[in-house]
Write a structure and sequence with these properties.
Largest sheet: 7 strands, parallel
Strand order of the largest sheet: 8-7-6-9-10-11-12
Order of helices and strands: EHEEHEHEHHEHEHEHEHEHEHHHEH
Number of helices: 14
Number of strands: 12
Distance between the termini: 21 Å
Structural class: alpha/beta
Helix content: 25-40%
Strand content: 5-15%
Amino acid sequence: MKIAVFGLTEEDKINYIRENIPEHQIIFYNHELDQDNLPPELGFEVISVFADSNVNSKVIDSFPNLKMIAVRATGFDNVDTNYAKTKDIVVSNVPSYGSHTVAEFTFGLILSLSRNIPEAIDRVKSEGGFEYSGLKGFDLFGKTLGVIGTGRIGTNVIKIARGFGMKVLAFDLYPKQSLAAELGFEYVPLEELLKLSDIVTVHIPSTKESFHLINSDNIALMKKEALLVNTSRGVIVETKALLRAIENKQISGIALDVMEDEAGLKDDSTNLLAEKLEPAVVKNLLAEKILIENPNVIVTPHAAFYTKEAETTILQETVTNIKNFFSGKPSNVVS
């Protein structure tokens, strides 16, 4: 069979895939896949993409022989899985590679906010000062952490929080009471979590139900001293609600590794002006750029997953998913 791998440039990763799937023809493309970036050849049975590709129905229809889409990530909202299912195309992901990786990064962001670490570093490096005035933070010990989503990542966040001596509240559509008893946290309704938490962190997938789960109505329930952290998917938290909340001092700090319109943020201003973007998208991008400039907001470029251990696991699991598909026993199927 013929396999196309998109968005992969590192020679060692390319060699790993070639060596572990030697019996099939594999072509590597160093760009992401979307309807404007189709390869010159389209006769592939399997395609593999990362989170920055956009595999919509038009892209799927462009590959007449397509049988499988191997996503090299946990999130798969960049693939139209419903349409793939109608075409009997298997979509697989890598569900567990970042459970510790993202949880650790989440606490890096929490500590950065709670102790003003980026500002402290900038003061010493950029301003040449060595003075701590104005950098007063607060202890995590004894504070309440609200965890939205208690899957693998959320569970590891809870374990770390308990190590800091934090009280933990959680919200999940499918509560695991045995897990709550084991780790010593409590499930509560979302509104109660937002009201009572000193820090709220988001760890759920992007679905129709989770779109703008955090919005203008419920973000107003949070404490004025509270912090909000999102390392899951940008669309779960409404950008305009975030901007209003931080500018009106409804909450005191925000840390984001993901944003609603990440693709637009990667383009420079000239490209954005040249594109025929919907007015709503333009407004969202403007709000995101204003958020980024706010001194009480930390934004990182979707890097929470990015460790050598996580990348190794991604490659291994992706190769396994493809080989299992060829053997007639598909694994980690999400379609």
